[in-house]
Amino acid sequence: MPTAPAFGRALTAVVTPMEDDGGLDLGGFRRVVEHLFAHGHDGVVVSGTTGESPTTSDEEKVALLRAAVEVVGERGAVVAGVGSNDTAHSVHCARQAADAGATGLLVVTPYYSKPTQEGIARHVEAVADATDLPVMVYDIPGRSGVPMTTETLLRLAEHPRVRGVKDAKADLWASTHVMAATDLQYYSGDDVLTLAHLTQGAVGYVGVATHVLGDEYAAMLAAVDRGDLTEAVAIHRRTIPVVDAVMFTSQGAIMAKAALHELGLIGSPAVRLPLVTSPPEHLARLRAALAALPASTARLAAAP
Fold it and tell me: Site (Part of a proton relay during catalysis): which residue positions (predicted)?
């Protein structure tokens, strides 16, 4: 395992808090980033899927990124989501992110267009050529419509700035092949498979339920590092109620915001259409799961 992963190890794809009228809540965003670093994190991804990147403007993305850079300082990584289904726009966003102080770039497989593997590779290479920042590619066929094949990932590994993979493909064997054949640093991009990814050589994770389970996932990572699989499995199982409530009700960004609102960290759980806030039955399930968290986390509700 690399001693100094390019993007840190314990990351969350941070939400974009919003006011009830849809405007950015930058104060809430800063509180969430600070909360993450107080609970086991050494990095954040800004303007990823959970940050509602499809419905935020380039100007808003810059404002969020600058706020994150200010809060994080020298404590860890600030990775900017710059991917889209338009290569030219992704290149523009990469340069914009570099100018705003990002320490790395997240590049998702171009979605909707369903490009060929050659097109995917050229897209990532174009973004990687645009700045000097390290690139984490994001393989999530459930959203993009097209998986990155092993051959494509092997090709991308030859680019000096393609350093990592956020894996949400749910194909652990394919991930094993790439990790065995390259120096690409793997990050679990699927909360339910984080333990499995870590035990087969992933360096870390980019989570969603980690908004409120930061300590738990950090402890799981530490247990794997010291070879205590029994403890890692026990922690993994303790996360089940919250992960189920956040990831298997409506949608991750919706429920992560709902959880942060329940814990008093953001003033509103508002999301932008086409996302809508949680129905009462989802909130009830979430509240029950949060109530079972350790007292140190539950007391966040009383924090300023």
Answer: 49, 112
